[in-house]
Amino acid sequence: MKAIEPLQSLLDSRDERANLRKKIALTGIPSVSLSLNVPGFPKSNTITQKFFYICLEDLNYFLKANRISVNHEGAIYQTDMAGDFFIAPFSATQITTIEIKQLCEQFEERHPLGRFLDVDLTDGTGDPVSSGKAKLCFFCRQKPADICRHEEAHDLNELRKFMFSKMEMFCTHHREAELSREISSLALKAILYEISLTPKPGLVDKLSNGSHTDMSFRTFIDSSAAISAYFADLVQAGFAFHANDLVKALPIVRNIGLRMETAMFSSTQNVNTQKGLIFLMGISLFALGYLFAGQEKFETEKFREIIKQICKDLIHKELEYPDPREKTHGEDIYCRYSVSGARGEAESGFPMVFEFGLPELLKYRELNEEALQKAFLSIAAHNNDTNIIYRSNLDVLKNFKILSGNALTHFNPESYRQLMDYCAKENISPGGSADLLALTIFVYSLITSGDTDKFTWWIKHDP
Ligand SMILES: [Zn+2]
After folding, report:
1. Of 329, 350, 331, 328, whose CA–CA distance to 283 is shortest?
2. Distance between CA atoms of 147 and 135, rounded to whole angstroms?
3. Cα-to-centroid distance, 146 and ligand 1 (Å)
4. Average pLDDT, stretch 255-259?
5. CB of 454 closer than 8 Å to CB of 57
6. Domains along the chain?
7. What's the count of helices (H) and strands (E) in the chain, helices before strands?
8. N or C: which end of the chain has fewer CB within 10 A?
9. Are 311 and 343 in contact (CB under 8 A)?
10. N-term to C-term CA, the chain
11. Distance from the CA of 150 to the center of ligand 1, in angstroms?
């Protein structure tokens, strides 16, 4: 008896779908439906549902791109014994149902897992619009699907296992691509917010080149555009990293980071605008891919722990024994003053960002000018900025930090002006603190962007 029950409900569900098609056709309007070809029972589970939503979104964009619109007010989404199902009437359209059918077939053919999908059309009289083409079996790809089904050519469990693993892989890739795009966009936004913050002491902003003679606001736009092309690669590298020892991730991040440096130099006519930022943002983007591979939500402590592990012993390994032939600014500063710069900041899990910059932004809960200025001042008051030391000495750094602290405590135009004047007089630029501000804005955006549910659009239209 048990085997008959699901079959009976399956038939009921199919009847109900036929009724839905007829009901829409009563208004004289053709409809489109999407369902999945899942053999055996149950026909719906968490994997099929995720897959179904993604395909539904793909179908919607495909139809829209072909200038065919669906009336979402009249759309019905349901999961029953026959599986996941969506049906909607078309809005007024210029092309015939035959033409739409051809497009839907194109959609199925081009979709990487289109063999699992059924996009069906019903015309305005309630009849199915068919092209009469037989679909190949998704498992053997040798015979038409109907023949294999009729002959029971394949083991049901094997078919299901094959199908669910393909769907799961598809959903994982889809999620990783979506997250990479979203995270990259937040990273670029953070960088642009930092560059645009005006006025800034000693730094390039919208109105001044600060203490710089070789770069302007536009130089930063150029180099930001150049390096942002690699952001998604960094996140994807994090998704793809499966080793336990995160120290092994550093050469992977560096490999992409070096390409970003090349892109930066070529976009700025060899001016170093964002080398420090490439390092900080590079590790962060990779760390996010690694973090989101294992969980849905952003967690600051976990993020910091990943950064710390990637950069474990970095000061000892790279700053204490640098290559004397190719000493960088950071290595030079460490040799002379034992100030560890961006590497030290990363090795300790970005304390300037989390202990000084971020609390200021979180007080405001929005990225307005005042919040950004205060976050910058809070970082500048505590950060041993190697960019300042490189152009001056430890005494100047000490005075700069005191003035920054004062400008934060007594937040007014006068205290800010004193700090600006001091940077101009000493010809210094707190570029390290500016990089950390960009990173702070990025982290703030990750914390507050929260909702990563991509499918609310369809759920909203669920009657
Ligand atoms: Zn087959």
Report:
1. 350
2. 10
3. 9
4. 98
5. yes
6. 4-133 (3.30.70), 137-165 (no CATH), 179-449 (1.10.4200.10)
7. 21, 5
8. N
9. yes
10. 34
11. 10
Asked if residues 310 and 246 have their Cβ atoms less than 8 Å apart, the reply is yes
What is the rounded distance in angstroms from the CA atom of residue 414 to the CA atom of residue 430?
19
The token pair that represents 20 in the structure block: 């839905």
pTM here is 0.92
Tokens of 360: 């200021």
How remote is the CA of residue 163 from the centroid of ligand 1, in Å?
Answer: 13
Task: Identify whether the C-beta of residue 280 lies closer than 8 Å to the C-beta of residue 342.
Answer: yes
Distance (Å) from CA 161 to ligand 1 centroid = 14
Distance, CA of 64 to chain centre: 24
Instruction: Express each pLDDT in 406-457 by its tens digit.
Output: 999 999 999 999 999 999 999 999 999 999 999 999 999 999 986 444 433 3
> Helices 156-196 and 46-65 sit at what angle, rounded to 10 degrees?
60
Measured in angstroms, how far is the CA atom of residue 169 from the centroid of ligand 1? 21
CB distance 130 to 136 below 8 Å? no
Whether residue 4 has pLDDT greater than 90: no
Total residues belonging to the chain: 463
DSSP β-bridge partners for residue 78: 85
Computed over its alpha carbons, how large is the radius of gyration of the chain?
Answer: 29
Q: Which residues pair with 86 in a beta bridge?
A: 34, 77
What is d(CA 213, CA 219) in angstroms, rounded to the nearest whole number? 11
CA triplet 78, 80, 81: central angle to 5 degrees? Answer: 160
- Which amino acid type is present at position 355? E
